[in-house]
Amino acid sequence: MGRPMAKNLASAGFDVRTWNRSGGSVDGATDCRTIEEAVRPAEVVITMLSEDAVVRTVTFGEGRVAASLMTGGVHVGMSTISVELAGELATVHAEGGQRFVNAPVFGRPEMAAAAKLFIVPGGNAADLAQLSPIFAALGQGTFPMPGARESAVAKLCGNFMLAGLIESLGEALTLGEKGGVAPEQLLGMLTGTLFGIPVVHGYGGMMVRQQFSPAGFAMALGLKDMKLVLQAGDRLEVPMPLADLLRTRFLQAMAQGKGNLDWSGMSTVIRESAGLK
User: For residues 168 and 190, is the Cβ–Cβ distance under 8 A?
Assistant: First the structure.
């Protein structure tokens, strides 16, 4: 996700410096050897990482983001993280005379490449106004939230609903197939009537084709997000039985060695539980 996002920023005329944990350069950007080299001259630093532990490693410590960012600089965290970490990042940066805007995104890699992400930034109005040209270069719409923690909650709500849609679509296609309705025929009916929305077209098409690799969003990340959803539900005293089911589905997929498949591959677990191959 980070690579096409950085490329779009460079194409939009921003002076982009990049550091990648796995290496590799971005067209139009300056490739840096260390985090500090990338962050030190920047007024705005963007992180796009996989999970809480990695965000912590990249942000905290000598030579990392928080230690290298200039006073008054803005750290824009675009990862899907826990509500607790979002709040901690806001606090740590404020104590360092910096600013933090949590701004997770909805959209798969192809949407990132097309600058069609949906961005959910949480922060004060002045910070969001400053960042609006950056968001415009990355996405097709922003949906501001009051602060970093609220932004993290909103993103988890969205990912929970996406996972729930994958579960219900997988169950429906499996039921239809065992009842004599071909998956492509059932999907055509669903998308041609009440469910003609992009996510049903997209994920349904992947299920019909059984095309789950390469992963746009890996099963392991789906499991991570359902754990974060349940963690938020526990802290806020919101029972979430569906999220518990989804966590179990992802765990089943992981136990079957499917962690690197796209999370829509959860439908294979549903099929197999119904005796289909």
Answer: no
Q: State pLDDT tens for residues 147-204.
A: 999 999 999 999 999 999 999 999 999 999 999 999 999 999 999 999 999 999 999 9
Residues 6+ apart with CB under 8 A from 108: 202, 216, 217
Q: How far apart are CA 45 and CA 8, in angstroms?
A: 15
Mean pLDDT of 38-42: 96
Residue 256's Cβ-count burial label (10 Å; 0-12, 13-18, 19+) is middle
**C-alpha closest to that of 89 among 63, 119, 49, 60:** 60
Residue 77, token pair as written in the block: 């965290």
- Both structure tokens of 262: 């796209």
- Domains of the chain, CATH where assigned: 2-146 (3.40.50.720), 151-273 (1.10.1040.10)
Order of strands across the sheet that contains 139-142: 105-106, 117-119, 139-142
The angle, 0 to 180 degrees and rounded to 10, between the axes of the packed helices 183-192 and 148-178 is: 130
Strands (E), 78-175: 99-102, 105-106, 117-119, 139-142
Do residues 45 and 73 make contact, with C-beta atoms less than 8 angstroms apart?
Answer: yes
pLDDT recorded at residue 34: 96
Cis-peptide, bond into residue 198, ω within 30° of zero: no
Contact 103, 120 (CB under 8 A): yes
CA pair distance 2, 25, nearest whole angstrom:
11
Its pTM stands at: 0.95
Residues belonging to the active site: 155
